[in-house]
C-alpha cells in the first residue's frame, strides 16, 4: 500500500530537515518556516537556500529572525489533504519547548475535530525528521492510524541529537537557553557541546578549541549501540560535515543522511556548527 491510496497522511515542517526527495517519496507534506533577513521575509528552503543563508549571516546588518507559519497555512495544508481523500492526519513538529510550531498546529487542528492529531516530537532537526519518516513508512505498510501514532511515539523515545556549537554569541543572542553564562570574551573562545533531550537543549562539555570539542563529539557517538538511523548535521560547514561523516559512517548499517540544518535553528547557533541525529534500536 502507498500513501496515494492510504487514508492517512503525515505532515511536518521544514525544521525537521527531511531532504526534499525523501519527503516526496514518502508523501510527507512539509510546511516551510518563516525567516526574516534585513527586513525581507523568506520561506525556509523555498525562497532562499540554506547555503545562501549561512553565507550571508555574518554580514547581516541586523540579527535574522524566524517565525512560525500562520494558523491559516496549517489549515490550508490539512484541508488540501482532506480534499485529496485523506481521512486522518498525523502532524509532527519540533519540541514545543523550543518553538510555537506545535501550538499553532493545534490551533489549526481544532477546525478539523479529531481528524488531525498534532504530535510533539520533543526534538529538532532530523530528531524530528526521523520520527516523521518512520511514521510515513508505517502508513505505506498499511498500519491503522493508532499504530502510526504508536510508531512515532516509539521512535521519539529513541531519538537523540548532539551538536558542537562553534560560537556561543549567536546562542546568547537568541535567549533560548537559560544555562548559558559566560562573559563576552568567552563567547569568542568557547566551543560548546549540547544535547537535545526531552524537548530541551542541555549543555554538555565546553572546550577552548574546535579540535577538542570535535573529539568529544566523536567520543559521545562511539557510546551509541544498535544505531538504526544516523545523520550528520551542519550549519553552512560542508567541509566539517565531511570530516564528521568520515568518522561515523561505519556506525550505522543504513545510509547516512547529511543535511544543512534549517535556518530556524541556524539563527540561534550560527554558522560553522556540526552535529549528529541518531535513532537507536530498542
Topology overview:
Layout: E1 8-13, H1 20-25, E2 28-31, E3 34-37, E4 40-43, H2 50-56, E5 65-67, H3 71-83, E6 88-93, H4 101-109, E7 116-120, H5 126-140, H6 145-156, E8 159-165, H7 168-174, H8 184-187, E9 191-197, E10 200-207, H9 210-221, E11 227-234, H10 238-248, E12 257-260, H11 263-269, E13 274-280
Parallel strand pairs: 1-2, 1-6, 6-7, 11-12
Antiparallel strand pairs: 3-4, 3-5, 8-9, 8-13, 9-10, 11-13
Helix pairs in contact: 3-4, 5-6
Helical residue percent band: 25-40%
Number of domains: 2
> How many H/I helical runs?
11
Question: What is the second-level CATH architecture of the largest domain?
Answer: 2-Layer Sandwich
- The shape, in one word, is globular
**Spatial separation of the terminal alpha carbons:** 26 Å
How many β-strand stretches?
Answer: 13
Q: What does the largest sheet look like?
A: 6 strands, mixed
- CATH hierarchy class name of the largest domain: Alpha Beta
Residue fraction in strands: 25-35%
- Output mean pLDDT: 90
- Radius of gyration over all CA atoms, rounded: 18 Å
Oligomer: single chain
Biggest β-sheet: strands ordered side by side in the sheet: 10-9-8-13-11-12
CATH topology of the largest domain: Hypothetical Protein Tm841, Chain: A,domain 3
Amino acid at each position: 500500500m502507498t500513501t496515494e491510496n492510504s487514508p492517512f497522511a503525515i505532515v511536518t515542517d521544514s525544521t525537521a530537515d527531511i531532504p526534499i526527495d525523501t519527503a516526496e517519496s514518502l508523501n510527507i507534506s512539509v510546511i516551510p518556516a518563516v525567516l526574516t533577513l534585513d527586513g525581507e521575509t523568506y520561506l525556509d528552503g523555498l525562497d532562499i537556500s540554506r547555503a545562501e543563508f549561512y553565507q550571508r549571516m555574518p554580514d547581516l546588518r541586523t540579527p535574522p529572525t524566524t517565525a512560525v507559519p500562520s494558523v491559516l497555512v496549517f489549515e490550508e495544508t490539512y484541508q488540501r489533504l482532506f480534499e485529496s481523500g485523506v481521512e486522518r492526519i498525523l502532524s509532527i513538529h519540533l519540541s514545543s519547548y523550543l518553538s510555537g510550531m506545535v501550538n499553532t498546529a493545534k490551533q489549526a487542528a481544532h477546525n478539523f475535530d479529531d481528524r488531525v492529531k498534532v504530535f510533539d516530537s520533543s526534538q529538532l532537526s532530523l530528531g524530528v525528521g526521523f520520527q516523521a519518516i518512520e511514521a510515513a513508512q508505517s502508513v505505506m505498510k498499511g498500519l491503522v492510524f493508532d499504530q502510526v501514532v504508536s510508531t512515532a511515539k516509539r521512535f521519539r523515545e529513541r531519538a537523540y541529537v548532539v551538536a558542537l556549537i562553534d560560537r556561543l554569541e549567536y546562542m546568547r543572542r537568541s535567549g533560548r537557553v537559560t544555562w548559558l553564562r559566560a562573559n563576552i570574551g568567552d563567547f569568542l573562545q568557547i566551543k560548546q557541546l549540547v544535547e537535545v533531550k526531552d524537548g530541551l537543549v542541555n549543555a554538555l562539555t565546553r572546550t577552548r578549541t574546535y579540535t577538542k570539542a570535535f573529539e568529544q563529539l566523536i567520543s559521545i557517538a562511539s557510546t551509541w549501540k544498535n544505531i538504526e538511523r544516523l545523520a550528520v548535521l551542519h550549519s553552512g560547514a560542508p567541509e566539517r560535515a565531511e570530516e564528521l561523516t568520515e568518522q561515523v559512517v561505519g556506525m550505522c548499517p543504513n545510509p547516512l543522511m547529511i543535511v544543512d540544518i534549517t535556518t530556524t535553528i541556524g539563527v540561534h547557533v550560527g554558522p560553522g556548527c556540526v552535529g549528529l541525529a541518531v535513532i537507536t534500536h530498542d
